[in-house]
Amino acid sequence: MDSSPANKRFAEDIGVKFPLLSDWHRKAVKDYGVYNNETGYGTRATFVIDQSGIIKHIEEGRSAIDPTGAYQACNLFDKKKSN
Amino acid sequence: MLKRFAPLILLLAGLAVPVFGQQPAASPAPPSAPKPAPPKTHLKVGQPAPDFTLTDTEGKQVNLHDFKGKQNVILAFYILAFTGG
Q1: Cβ(B49)–Cβ(A47) under 8 Å?
Q2: Model ipTM?
Q3: Where are the domains positioned within chain B?
């Protein structure tokens, strides 16, 4: 797991504008069910969570690398707001 | 549109090899021992997202509940981001 200083260096390298969080103790990966006991690390996954804290979309594995699914879920929020 | 979202990235790294990368040519997995599929989350769409408290790059604690009623959140577990995986 990357530490916060390692994340900071990474954030500077790629110039991100959003928070990069460190799950040093692997609690979040376990709580979200994406912890791999065999490797001791998490797997790639994306969760879209609305303002009320409800999960609206989940991408796991290879598809989580592609942001299209999460982007489409965001579009669903916009459509609901415009209705 | 994306301004209403607070994208959060969890960087969980440390392996020297990619989790989803190609099998090394020199040591392919034998047919009798297929690589186990990665775990699938127990969470479902429509369920409350588990709260978390994690540290950002400035050492500040970030909680999911801080965004409740304010912003939607994209939470990306991005494994091996800093290790070339």
Answers
A1: yes
A2: 0.78
A3: 1-16+49-85
